[in-house]
Amino acid sequence: MAAKTFEESMLELEKVVSKLESGDITLDESLKLFEKGIKLSKNCQKMLDEAEKKVKILTASDDGSMEEKDFEVQE
Predict the structure, then answer these.
(1) 58: β partners
(2) Pseudo-torsion of CA 33, 39, 40, 44, nearest 10°?
(3) Which residues are CB-neighbours of 34 under 8 A, at least 6 positions away?
(4) Which of 29, 39, 55, 64 sits a CA distance of 20 to 30 A from 47?
(5) Residue 74 gets which letter from DSSP?
(6) Angle at CA 13, nearest 5°, toward 7 and 19?
(7) Cα–Cα distances in angstroms (integers) from residue 2 to residues 5, 31, 35, 40, 47, in the given order
(8) What is the pLDDT along the chain (75 residues), one digit of tens a residue?
(9) What are the residues whose beta carbons fall under 8 Å from the beta carbon of 59, sequence distance 6 or more?
């Protein structure tokens, strides 16, 4: 089976959270869903970390040449 995309994993994670929040499942089912949610969350975080490493911003310097800079998250 092919690896899930970030979007597919997030959609599945949202479904897991929705089921957990409903409260209509047994404790055993809740624990299994929680474990699945943790795995999905870690997988999504890994994909985000990898994407962040790849993101570069090209900026023009004063002399008109292009230089590559690392992406920095601004808070």
Answers:
(1) 68
(2) 160
(3) 20
(4) 29
(5) -
(6) 140
(7) 9, 26, 21, 15, 15
(8) 568 899 999 999 999 999 999 989 999 999 999 999 999 999 999 999 888 777 655 455 566 666 666 666 665
(9) 66, 67, 69
